[in-house]
Amino acid sequence: MEITIVKPVLFYIFSSLAIATALMVIIFRNPLYSATSLVVTFFSIAVIFILLGSEFIAVMQVLVYAGAIMVLVIFVIMLLNLKNEAPIKNLLRSFFAILITGILFVSMMFVLVKGASENLEGAKRGVITEAVINETGSIEVFSMALFSEYLIPFELASLLLTAAIIGVVILAKGMRKKVSSTGEKGK
Amino acid sequence: MPKECEKRFLQPGKKGNKMDQILNITPGHYISLSVILFCIGAAGVLLRRNAIVIFLCIEIMLNAVNIALITFSRYFDQSRGEIFVFFVMAVAAAESAIGLALLIVVYKQKKTIDVDEINLLKG
Amino acid sequence: MFEYVWLIVLLPFFGFLILGLLGNKLGERISGIVASLATVLSFALAVKIFIELLSRPEEERSVVVTLFDWIVAGKIHTAIAYQIDPLSMLMTLIITGVGSLIHIYSIGYMHGDKGVPRFFAYLNLFMFSMLNLVLGSNLILMFLGWEGVGLCSYLLIAYYYDVKDAGDAGKKAFIVNRVGDFGFIIGIFLIINYFGVLDFLSLEKAVEAESVGALVIFWITLMLFVGATGKSAQIPLYVWLPDAMAGPTPVSALIHAATMVTSGIYMLARLSFLFVKAPETMMIISVIGALTAFFAATIGTQQNDIKKVLAYSTVSQLGYMFMGAGAGAFTAALFHVMTHAFFKALLFLGAGSVIHALHHEQDIRNMGGLRKKLPITHFIFLIGTLAIAGTPFFSGFFSKDEILWKTFNYNIVVWAFGAAAAMITSYYMFRLYFVTFWGDMRYHEHGDHKVHESPLVMTVPLLILAVLSAFGGIFGIPHILDIFHIGNYLEEFLKETVLDGSKTYYGHNVEIGLMVFSVTLAFAGFLIAYKLFYRNRKIPVKDDDIKGLNNVVYQKYFIDEIYNSLFVQSILNFSYGLWRWFDVLVIDGIVNGVGKIIKNFGDGSRDVQTGVVHDYMISMAIGLASFMTLLCLYLW
C-alpha cells in the first residue's frame, strides 16, 4: 500500500467519526452521554489537525478542550445532578430550527462549491511552504510567528484568562455582606 | 452518509479519475467537514433545552471554525490561521469557565437549567 | 457745537442707565437730581445750538449730523443721524425746557412714594425717546422715538403697578397706541415702496419731483395720520388719554400735555411737503380735529376729577392743533403746541400741587376755598386758566386765534365747531377754577396733614411756567396787531422748514372781527361759569344724582363701553373659541397623538422580547441564513 493512501483513509474514517459523534451530542437526552460523545468528537478533530500538519494545535486541542473544558463540564453535570431532558415541547420552534439549519447548510455548501471552483494556484500565498515546515519544524514556525508578530495578542490573552479567573471566583463565591457591628469591614 | 456527501459535492473543476477525486484530499474536503459540523452545532443550539448541552454545541461550532482556519492556513502557506486558532482556544477556555460558573449561579436561583424557563427578561 | 447734537439725545439716556442700574442705591433725592441734571444739561446744549443756528443765514439752517450707518438693506438706507433745523430745535427747546421744569417739580411731588428712582429712570428714558423722535433725520429714527415714547407712556402710567386701574390704563394706552402705530408703519412701507428714500431731505426732493400718483399720496398721508390719531389722541383713538390720568401727575404733565401727544403734530409739520399734496387727507384731518375739539370739550363740562377735566381739555386742544394743521396752517399749529405746552403743563402741575396739599384728594366736589390756603397755586392756576380760555394778550389767545383765523379761511363749518369748542373750553375751565378755589371749604383735613402750600422745589417751576404762559405769546404776534413793532417771530423762524399750505381769502377787517368774536365767546363762557359757580355757589352733584343727558355726557357718551363690546369682546370671544376648539382639540390632539402612537407602537413591539433565549438565537440564525442566501444569490 502506498503511503499516499493512508491520508485519505484516515481522513474519511475520522471525519465520519467526528460527524457521527457530533450528531450523538445533539441527539442524546442524557447530558452525560452528550458530554462523553463530545470528548470523542474532540479527539477525532485532533486527528484531522494532525492530517493538516498542525501537530501543535492538535495537542492543544486534546489538552485544552478534551482535557480541561470537558472535565469541567462533566464536573458541573455531576454537581448539578441533571436529569434527562424532557421531550420537545415547542414543535413550531423546532421546525423552524431545522428549516433554518437546512437553509444554512445548503447555502454554505453552494458557496463552497462555487468558490472552490476558483483556481487556488493563482491566489496570494505566504512563505511558509511545506518545505519550510519540513525543514524547521511546525512548532518552531508557529512560535516564531507567535512571539514576534503576534506578541501583543498573546499578552492580552493572558490578561483575558486572568479576568476570567477573577470573574469565576467572584461568581462562585458571591459578594460577602458587610459586617458593621464588630467594626470589621466586609471583605 | 458522509461518503455520499463527499462524492456529490466535490472538488469541481477536476475532470479526471473519479477515484482521483475521492482519494485526493483537497481543501474542499476539509471545508465541507467544517460546514457539516457547524450546521450540526447550530441545530443543536436551536433544538436543545438543557443549558449545558447548548454550551457543548457551541463548542462544536467553534471547533468547526477551527478546522476551516487551519485548512486555509495550510493551503495558503501562512501561519496566521494557526495563531488565530490558538487564540480561539484560549478564548473558548475562558468563556467556558465563566459560562459554567454563571450556570451554577443561575441554577442556585432557579433550581432549573432549562433555558425556556429562564425568561426574566420578558417584556 | 453742531457735532455734539447727539449729546442732547444721549444725556438723558445715560441718566436712565445710571438710575436704572444704581437707582435704588442712590436713593430718592439723588435720583431726582441726576435725572433733572441730565435734562437741564440737554436744555443748555440745545440753547447753545439754537443760538448758533440763529447766527446763520436763513438758507443754511438745515444741518444733518450723521453718526453711523444703521440699516442698509436693499432700498432702505438709514443712518443714525440728527437733523438740526428750526423745526427740530423749536421742539427740542420745548421738550427739554418744560421737561427740566417738570423733573425739578417731581423731586418735590414724588417725595415719599415708593420706587422713586424707577420713576426718574423712566422719565429720562422718555426724554431720550422723545428727543430721538424730534431730532431724527429719517423716518425710521423718528419711528424709534415714536415707539419709545409709547413704551415709556405705558411704563409711567402703570407706575403704581399694584393698583389695578393703573395697570389697566397702561395697557389700554399701549394697545390703542399700537393700533395707530400700525397705520404709521403702513405709511412708512408705502413710502419705501414708492419713493425709495426715508430721510426727510431726500424725501422732500423726491416728492417735489412729482413722480407718484395722487391716490398713492392720499393713502400714504392717510395712514400716517392714523398713526398721529393714536399718539395724539384724536377721534377715534383718544380713549386712552383720560384713563392715563391714573399715573402720577408729573407724568400727565410731561407726557400727556406737553410732549408725547404733540408728536403727531410734529410729524405732520415735518412732512408738510407731503401733506400739502393731498388735499383730501387735509380735509379729513381738519374735520377730525374740529370734531375732537368740540366733542372732548363737551365731555369736560361734566367731569368732577381735576385731572380728568384737564385730560379732556388736552384732547380738545390737540383737536385744535389738528384743525389748524389740516387747514394748512402748520406754523399756527406749532405755535399752539408751544403755548399749550406752557399752560397745560402749568395747569397739570398746579393740579398736582392741589392734590399734594390735600393729600391725594382729586374730586373737586371735596375741594373749595383753597385760594386762601394755597395762594401761589391759586395764582398760577388762574394764569393758566386765563391762558387756555384765550384771554387777550395771554399766550393762548394768540395761538388759538391764529388757528381760528386760518380755519375760517379754509372752511366755515369746521371753524364753527372750533369756535363753539372755544366757548365751551372757557366755560369748563372756569367751572373747574371756581369750584376748586372759591366757595366753602368742603375738604377734610387728615389729622396732622394740614393743608399747606407746596415746597419751593415745586412752586418755582410753577412760577416759571406761569410767566411763559402769560408772555409766551410774544413769539407769534400776528402782523395786523403790530403793537410794539414786534412782528411774527415764529412764522419767520419756521419759514424755510415748514410749508404754509393755508390760503387767505378774507381781508384784515374780517380778521379783526373774528378776533373780537372769539374774545366775546370766551367771555360768554366765563360769564356762565361765574354765575353758576361763583355767584350761586353751585356745587356739582354726587355721582348717583346725575341724570339724563348730563349722565350721558358724564359717562363720556359710553364710547368706552361701545368700543368694549364692538372690539374687545369679539376678540376675546374669538380667542376663547380658538382656545377651546383649535388649541385643545387640534394642537393638543396632534401632540398627544404623537405620544400615543409611539406608546402604542412600543406596547406592540414589547412582545418581541419574550425573554426565552431560544427565540433570540433563532433570530440570529435567521439573520445568518439570510446573509448566506444573499451570498449564494450574489455568486450565482
Structural class of chain A: mainly alpha
Distance between the termini of chain B: 44 Å
Q: In terms of quaternary structure, what is this? A: heterotrimer
Share of helix among residues of chain B?
over 70%
Number of helices, counting only DSSP H or I runs of 4 residues or more of chain B: 5
Structural class of chain B: mainly alpha
Radius of gyration of chain B, CA atoms, in whole angstroms? 19 Å
Mean pLDDT of chain B: 83
Q: Biggest chain pair contact, residues each?
A: A-B, 90 and 80 residues
List the total number of helices of chain A.
Answer: 7
What is Rg of chain A?
23 Å
Report the order of strands and helices of chain B: HHHHH
Largest sheet descriptor of chain B:
none
Which H/E pattern describes the elements of chain A?
HHHHHHH
The chain-level mean pLDDT of chain A equals 84
Instruction: Tell me the total number of β-strands of chain B.
Output: 0
Work out the strand percent of chain B.
Answer: under 5%
Strand segment tally of chain A: 0
Give a structural overview.
The complex is a heterotrimer of chains A (187), B (123) and C (636). Chain A starts with 5 loop residues before the first helix and ends in a 14-residue tail after the last helix. Chain A is mostly helical. Chain A is built from seven helices and no strands. Residues 183-187 of chain A have low confidence and may be disordered. Chain B is built from five helices and no strands. Helix content of chain B is 73%, strand content 0%. Chain B has 123 residues and is an all-alpha fold. In chain C, helix 1 (5-54) packs across helix 2 (86-109), helix 13 (306-326) packs antiparallel against helix 14 and helix 13 (306-326) runs antiparallel to helix 18. Classes of the chains: A mainly alpha (187), B mainly alpha (123), C mainly alpha (636).
Keywords:
heterotrimer, A: 187 residues, mainly alpha, extended, disordered C terminus, B: 123 residues
What would you say about this model in short?
The complex is a heterotrimer of chains A (about 190), B (about 120) and C (about 625). Chain B is an all-alpha fold and about 120 residues long. Chain B is built from five helices and no strands.
Write the layout of secondary structure elements.
The complex is a heterotrimer of chains A (187), B (123) and C (636).
Chain A (H helix, E strand, L loop, with lengths): L5 H22 L3 H22 L2 H26 L10 H26 L13 H7 L1 H11 L2 H23 L14
Chain B lengths: L1 H7 L9 H6 L3 H21 L3 H25 L4 H31 L13
Chain C lengths: L4 H50 L8 E11 L2 E9 L1 H24 L6 H20 L3 H19 L6 H31 L5 H9 L5 H18 L8 H4 L5 H10 L4 H8 L1 H4 L3 H22 L5 H21 L3 H28 L12 H4 L1 H15 L5 H16 L1 H26 L18 H16 L17 H6 L13 H28 L12 H7 L4 H48 L6 H23 L1
Antiparallel strand pairs in C: 1-2
Helix pairs in contact in C: 1-2, 1-3, 2-3, 2-9, 2-14, 2-19, 3-4, 4-5, 5-7, 7-10, 7-12, 9-14, 10-14, 12-13, 12-18, 13-14, 13-17, 13-18, 14-16, 14-17, 14-19, 16-18, 16-19, 17-18, 17-21, 18-21
